[in-house]
Amino acid sequence: MSNDIESGKPGPLFEDFLREQGTYEETTEQAIKRVIAFQLAEVMKEQSITKVEMARRLETSRSQLDRLLDPDDGNVTIATLVRAAKAVGRSIKLELA
């Protein structure tokens, strides 16, 4: 295997590949959910908030909170994300690109 860098023009973007495969939207949605779940879990850890306490703050069950924190569960509403962010003193920022 050679370590030489091949010169020439760059290849297509990964986004272009996903669009060609017809999976761009689904993949993007999954990535966003994973990032938000990770960020929420990290803030909870930083603030020493247990799952039991977080569920209490959200006025929901622990199993509902587990679904929110599950990076592979994409069935979370924006309203739930906003409530969760407020529960840890944060906010959600959405924008159209």
In brief, what are we looking at here?
With about 100 residues, this protein is mostly helical. It is built from five helices and no strands.
The stretches of 5 or more residues where confidence is low (pLDDT under 50) are none
Beta-strand content estimate: under 5%
Secondary structure tally: strands: 0
- Note the total helix count: 5
Overall mean pLDDT = 88
Provide the CATH topology. 434 Repressor (Amino-terminal Domain)
What is the CATH class?
A: Mainly Alpha
Distance between the termini: 40 Å
SS-derived structural category: mainly alpha
Give the assembly state of these chains: single chain
CATH architecture: Orthogonal Bundle
Rg over alpha carbons:
18 Å
Helix content: 55-70%
Tags for this entry?
single chain; 97 residues; mainly alpha; 434 Repressor (Amino-terminal Domain); 5 helices; 0% strand
Q: What report would you give on this structure?
A:
- There is one protein chain.
- 59% of the residues lie in helices and 0% in strands.
- The chain is mainly alpha-helical.
- α3 (51-58) packs across α4 (62-69).
